[in-house]
Amino acid sequence: MAFHFRPLELVAPINIMNRKQKIAVAIGVALVVLAGLFPPFEGERNREGDNYRIHAGHHFLFVPPSQNDVSVAMGRPDGYGLAFSSRILLSQLYVEFSIIIVATAGATLLLAKGTRDNTDKG
């Protein structure tokens, strides 16, 4: 008795997700990419013994907020000769990623109607 190997895709076509689910996943991936390209930044005024931090908004990843942007966010547009710096708020970025992923998974599960009969009714 000989065993004949047939690849799975030749036995039966498997349609794992319907059209609406694919759109939901594509939107989720696009949102994760955008959140990664425009992360939240925190501005900091560096002064000996007194460092002050404030949310500096979302900026493009490769163009972080300048010292002038941070000083304006702190309400000191002239800066008074103080040193300002900025850094990415990783904890807030992780929360953003988590919310997007959970919302995408939820939307994908809610839109799962009609996937078991291998039809793509859209």
Shape: elongated
Number of helices: 4
Query: Distance between the terminal alpha carbons, to the nearest Å?
Result: 44 Å
- Helix/strand structural class: alpha+beta
- Largest sheet at a glance? 3 strands, antiparallel
Q: How are helices and strands ordered from N to C?
A: HHEEHEH
Low-confidence stretches: none
Number of strands: 3
Key traits:
122 residues; alpha+beta; 2 domains; 3-stranded antiparallel sheet; 4 helices
Task: Write up what this structure looks like.
The chain is of the alpha+beta class and 122 residues long. It has two domains: 17-39 and 89-114; 40-88. Helix content is 42%, strand content 16%. It is built from four helices and three strands; from the N terminus they run ααββαβα. The protein has helices at 8-11, 19-37, 67-73, 90-110, and strands at 40-46, 52-58, 83-88. A hairpin with a 5-residue loop joins strand 1 (40-46) and strand 2 (52-58). It starts with 7 loop residues before the first helix and ends in a 12-residue tail after the last helix. The model has no long low-confidence stretch (mean pLDDT 81).
